[in-house]
Design a protein that fits this description.
Elements: H1 27-40, H2 47-56, H3 59-72, H4 77-84, H5 87-95, H6 100-113, H7 119-127, H8 131-144, H9 149-156, H10 159-169, H11 181-196, H12 200-209, H13 212-225, H14 232-239, H15 242-270, H16 277-287, H17 292-303, H18 307-314, H19 317-327
Helix pairs in contact: 1-2, 1-3, 2-19, 5-16, 5-19, 6-7, 6-8, 7-15, 9-10, 10-12, 11-13, 11-14, 12-15, 14-15, 15-16, 15-17, 18-19
Length: 329
């Protein structure tokens, strides 16, 4: 099997971030960036210089710079940013200085305490992260809050969506190597039968425990073994409704095309009269070092417009310059 392919031989594009590591980044390099930041944060603030530093380097490099800055200067860097920036620009720059697990755990907390509960964000957080990212988020949430995440889910959600959320955050997904076609074909047959029988319990079990390579290949084989020849998304839409359909579709989309899933989430954040700035910042910051370049490609392919152009149409001023520096058109 060619390297970088799944069990069907289909080429899988490697994740590509817009913010990449700088080999050899060391204390001397960090000191240079601290000097730049300190000068830029004096009045009048050089917003372009601040944005450039905080969007050029990876999170680990940024945190290194922050540590050095905080040893040398008062007020500390995050306090200085709060004084120099406001509203969404401030939120974006502060998000860039949060560890990923803390950033996502905080997003989950906000979604859970919102009234009504922000189910769309919870679905994104639980379906759109790798197993390792999800594990870190769950453990961080449990450590930071008096009630564990699963207890909060039991309290704030209900019905089949609660079952799915609990199953995903139980962290039982198989992380073993890609299986062969026999296992994938057998699973495809089970999914076809479960769709016909509207067996949501089976869907939740499979979608929360099977590895992504097995699921991806089973989805590819599903039309061959399904009496209706329907694909997985058609099966889900025909068999289920409401929140559980949304949740299962999110898992299926992330398995088949994760960049496409996030491209759609970004499109939904910007469509219509208002902009969901919280979602826009969360997705762009959390995916910047992972697969934002792939998401940009998927957005352009789906909507016939570059992601940068879409974001520019919906934002302005310093906030737009922050997001543009993350997107890197």
């Amino acid at each position: 099997m060619p390297r970088g392919s799944d069990s069907s031989g289909r080429r899988i594009r490697a994740p590509r971030g817009t913010i990449r590591p700088h080999p050899g980044f060391d204390e001397e390099a960090a000191l240079a960036q601290v000097r730049t930041l300190y000068r830029a944060l004096q009045r009048p603030v050089d917003t372009a210089a601040v944005i450039s530093v905080l969007t050029k380097y990876t999170l680990h490099e940024r945190k290194y710079v922050e540590d050095v800055y905080n040893v040398q200067h008062e007020p500390k860097l995050q306090h200085a940013l709060r004084a120099a920036f406001s509203y969404n620009a401030q939120a974006t720059l502060l998000a860039l200085l949060q560890w990923q697990n803390q950033f996502l755990a905080a997003a989950a907390r906000r979604a859970l305490v919102a009234r009504p509960t922000d189910k769309a964000t919870l679905i994104e957080l639980f379906c759109g992260q790798s197993q390792d990212e999800l594990r870190d988020m769950v453990r961080t949430y449990d450590r930071l809050h008096s009630r564990p995440l699963q207890a909060e889910l039991r309290a704030q959600l209900n019905g089949e969506l609660r079952q799915l959320a609990l199953a995903l955050t139980a962290l039982n997904r198989d992380q073993s190597a890609s299986p062969g076609d026999n296992a994938a074909r057998e699973l495809a047959g089970r999914l076809a039968a479960a769709g016909q029988g509207r067996d949501v319990e089976m869907f939740i079990s499979v979608f929360s425990t099977a590895g992504y390579p097995l699921l991806r290949r089973a989805f590819e084989l599903l039309p061959e073994v399904n009496p209706s020849h329907a694909d997985i998304q058609t099966v889900i839409r025909a068999s289920f409704g409401g929140d559980i359909r949304t949740g299962l579709l999110a898992v299926a989309q992330c398995v088949a095309d994760q960049p496409g899933y996030f491209a759609e989430r970004l499109y939904r954040a910007m469509r219509g009269l208002g902009t969901d700035d919280t979602a826009l910042i969360r997705i762009l910051v959390s995916r910047a070092e992972n697969d934002l370049q792939n998401i940009k490609d998927a957005y352009h392919q789906r909507y016939g417009k570059s992601l940068a152009a879409a974001v520019e149409d919906d934002t302005s001023g310093t906030y737009w310059h922050c997001l543009r520096a993350i997107i890197k058109p």
